[in-house]
Each structure stands twice: as C-alpha cells, then as structure tokens.
DNA sequence: ACCGTTTGTCCGAAATATCGGACGTCGGTC
DNA sequence: GACCGACGTCCGATATTTCGGACAAACGGT
C-alpha cells in the first residue's frame, strides 16, 4: 500500500518530469508536501530530496523558505521536517468554508462523544474512498486517523453506499478491478458487492465485518442530496465483538445524523 | 517576536522585494495563501493579484497549478478561489503530529460536548494570542472560529495566564503598548492587567467579561509544563449572563482538563 | 445596441531561480 | 587515527519561469 504510493510517485517522476531535470519551485513544493502526507512522519530533508527526485540543494533552499512561512516545522532537533501550524490554519479555513463539512463536524463530534466510538465522515475522491473527518471516540487503541488517505471503494462499508447510483455495468467501469482485492489477498466477488449494495439501499445502512481488518466492524449510513444520490456517508468503526444491541443503537444514531446532513430537508 | 514577524514581512515587501518586480513562484504562493487566510473568504483571482502585488498573468498561472494540486478550489462558478481539501489533509497531519495538540483535541471536544458551550485551546504565537482549537458548542449563534487569527494578549482571558511567568517589567517589554487598547478604544491599565494576572495565579483560572465584546464572558485555565510555566490554555466562551453557578461548574471542568493536559504530572 | 470594465489566455524577452558539484563538519566505525 | 557517509552551505552558469502587455470574450450598466 505504501510501497505502491512510493512506486507511483517515482513513476510520475520518470514520465511527467523526465523531459527536463529542471522544475519550478512550486512543483517541487507540491511534491514535497505530498510526500510528507504519504509518509505521515517527520522526514529528513535529504530523504525527501531523494524520494521526490529533487536536487538536494534545491530542497534545502525550499525547506528553509517553507519553515519561515510556518508551512513546515523542524522537528526533534534531528534534521527532520513535518507540516507546520500554517497548514492547520488553512485547513480549518477550508473546513469552515464548505457547508456540508461544517455541519458534518458537529454531527461526527456529537455521535463520537455520546456513543464513545470512532466516528467518521467520508466521501469519494475520484474512484477512491476518502475519510474527510475522523473523531477518535473514547477507546485508547487504534487511532486510525486516515484523513486524506485514499482507499479502494470495495474495502469499505461506506463504499457500498457511495456508488449507490451506479448499475452493475457502471460499477465495473468505475471501480478498478484490482480494488476488489483486499490487503490480505482475498478477492471480493462482484455479485457479492452488488448484493451488499442492494441490501444497503433497502435497509438504509451498511454493515461490514472483518473486511480490511479481522477485528473491526464498520457501520455506515448515507447522506443524500435532494435527488437521492449518496454524496457522503457517516459511519462508526467498532470492534467486531460489539453486541448486536449496541450496534442497532449506533445504526439508529447514524441514520438520524445522516438524515440531518442530507441537504434540502 | 511575531509582531516583528509581521512588521518584518511588510518591511520585506518594501525593501527586499521592491528592488525587483520579480519574485519566486513559491513566495507568491505564500503571499497568496496568507492573503486568503486574512480575508477568510473565497476571493477573485484578479483581486488577490492586486492585493498581493503579483502580476495578473503570474497569479493565474499559479492558481491553476494549485487548483490542480487541490491546494485551492474554484468556488461557486464565479471566478473565486479558496482553500482546497489538501490543506485539510496536511493540517490534520500537523495536528496529529503534535502530542499536546492531539490530546487537547480530545479534551476540547469532550468539554464542548458535555457542557454545550464553545471551548477553545490557545497558545502564544510570538507576542500575540492564538486560537489553536475551537469547538463550537451547542449554541447556534456566534461561530467564532478564529483559528489561526492572532489577537493582542490583553484582549483575552487566556492571555493573563500565558504571560504568567513574566514580571511587570518583562510584560511591558514583551507586549506592545498598543495592544492594551481594546477594539472599542478603551485602554486596559497595566496595573489592572498585572492584578488580573496575580489573582489568576492564585485562583488557578481567569474570568473576563465584556472585554472585546460586551456580551461575552471568557473562562480560562492554564496548561503548565513541569516547570510550572503556562504553555497553553483551555477555555470556554459563554454569554455574560450565564449563572454564577454554571460558571463555577465550567471552571472546575476547565481546571480538570487543563490538569490532564499538563505534561509530566 | 453601445461602450467601459473585467476575465482569462497567450506570447516573447530577460532577469533569475534552480541545479550540480565542491567544500567543510560532524559522528560513527574499523 | 584514518576512513566513510551524511549533513548543510555556498557558488557560478544557464535553462527556465516570471513578467508585461496585447488580445478576445464575457459581462453589465445605460
């Protein structure tokens, strides 16, 4: 998964950037930030330079500029850098500027707090599933903040709702075939997936268990636009051994929240 | 220090950048993002160009690049741009990477939810006060998400805690004199401010009423490092007519949260 | 329908930011 | 103590990005 990300990146370097060894500072910076986001950890400048194909001297120059602007921060005292506070400010401005997300924050925070389990708000980004908001809940372990990380649609409960409006043929065209293979190598049959979707549409929620992870159950409910199309989902991530009774309660909670978030009502 | 930062920046504009009309793309991008953050609203490209002193053609070029990278988003269909989802991802990575902030998120979310009032987590940035986290609470009005906006220290309750470790003379040197003037023109006497600080230290919290805004009360408690220095505050923003009883309860809540956040205890 | 303003694109020229490589330092290893 | 690799800085040359201005299209008020 991570390996693919890196390989991809280097492939990019070799196709889109090969023509010239020279690139604009801004393009270098974009590559730098994407690299940090993929790695999700403070990283040494020389490593970033190597992995993004940027000359070392250029990277030092850019990092200095960005640190000054608070886009990046030097960490630990060893020579690693990571995102700085400016990113948080700009990110907050973004969240506040998108109506649905602003409302979703309230809902996600509320249900995570009252139920005590990790709650998320998710959408599609291209043909991938994406966690937009994540509120950890009360359990200490598993702080799976995957914000901004893309995941194949079939790997998720929410994914079964988000492609709700497509028929079998459209699904086949839309979701890359390899995305039906789970991280452990198992493959999800397409009819199984379609059947999940059908059931989801009638029931108004989805439950998946042990999909990407053997011990986790996901519960998701659809946020729909006035035309009925699923534009986002709100969901819980809970241990698989959660009682049926508790899960039913969470499903009701999710449905209520999702309903409140659905625009034009 | 940060005030200098701002002054410095503008001095730069007039000294370091004037000589030549030409600037690096990355510097123009930094100016662009700062401008959007200051305006806090989708803005037309031509306006950004004018207000940041960037040539129009350059700004169009850069905006296109940034939109492609999802750093910016075209809004509404009119030609305005604002921050895009990438900023949210990077900002989330930053929040997750800073231990104290990660813990503070949990506390702020929890107390905002249980008490139902707006809760915030604040620090100093140079010689200014800064809201790092803001959780709106249950009231509908006043969604004062001032994340990333700097405010004079004397205008805030938290400010009285954050300069806790300075003596009268140091305070005078540290806080710009003009920062003692409130937005409505009233001036805070320095001894009054010092007296507030003294009381705050003995009581373990601060309360201010009608400081920047006639109808608002702020309650704040200090997060201290092992040496006892106040490194951040956690606070409530409530209507001034909140009952004394309710306020006492909130103060206890704040003190408990602040205690949990204080490192090495 | 007219005209002034704003928007977005395109182009050539030249000022300069990027790049490669050299250099001094620092730490660890044999 | 000599060697090796990594780190961070500096410098000159040139490939390139920025910039100004021109242009067409869209807009909006009269």
TrEMBL record, chains A, B:
It comes from the Bacteria. Residues 86-265 form the IclR-ED domain. The keyword Hydrolase does not apply. It comes from Azospirillum palustre. This is IclR family transcriptional regulator. One of its GO terms (biological process) is negative regulation of DNA-templated transcription. Keywords: DNA-binding, Transcription, Transcription regulation. SUPFAM superfamilies: GAF domain-like, Winged helix' DNA-binding domain. It holds the Pfam family IclR_C. GO terms for molecular function: DNA binding; DNA-binding transcription factor activity. Residues 1-21 are annotated as: Disordered. Residues 23-85 form the HTH iclR-type domain. The keyword Endoplasmic reticulum does not apply.
């Amino acid at each position: 998964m991570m390996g693919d990300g890196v390989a991809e990146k280097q492939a990019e370097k070799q196709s889109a950037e090969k023509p010239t060894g020279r690139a604009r500072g801004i393009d270098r910076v974009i590559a730098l930030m994407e690299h940090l986001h993929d790695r999700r950890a403070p990283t040494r400048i020389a490593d970033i330079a190597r992995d993004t194909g940027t000359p070392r001297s250029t990277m030092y120059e850019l990092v200095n500029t960005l640190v000054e602007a608070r886009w990046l921060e030097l960490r630990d005292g060893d020579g690693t850098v990571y995102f700085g506070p400016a990113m948080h400010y700009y990110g907050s401005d973004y969240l506040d500027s998108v109506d649905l997300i602003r409302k979703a924050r309230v809902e996600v925070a509320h249900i995570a707090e009252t139920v005590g389990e990790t709650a998320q708000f998710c959408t599609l980004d291209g043909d991938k599933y994406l966690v937009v908001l994540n509120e950890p809940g009360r359990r200490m372990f598993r702080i799976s903040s995957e914000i901004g990380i893309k995941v194949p649609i079939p790997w998720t409960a929410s994914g079964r709702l988000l492609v709700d409006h497509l028929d079998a043929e459209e699904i086949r065209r839309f979701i890359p075939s390899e995305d039906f293979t789970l991280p452990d190598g198992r493959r999800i049959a397409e009819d199984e997936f379609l059947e999940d979707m059908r059931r989801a549409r009638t029931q108004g929620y989805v439950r998946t268990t042990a999909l990407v992870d053997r011990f986790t159950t996901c519960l998701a409910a659809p946020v729909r636009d006035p035309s009925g199309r699923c534009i986002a989902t709100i969901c819980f991530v809970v241990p698989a051994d959660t009682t049926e009774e508790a899960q039913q309660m969470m499903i009701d909670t999710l449905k209520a929240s999702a309903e409140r978030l659905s625009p034009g009502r």
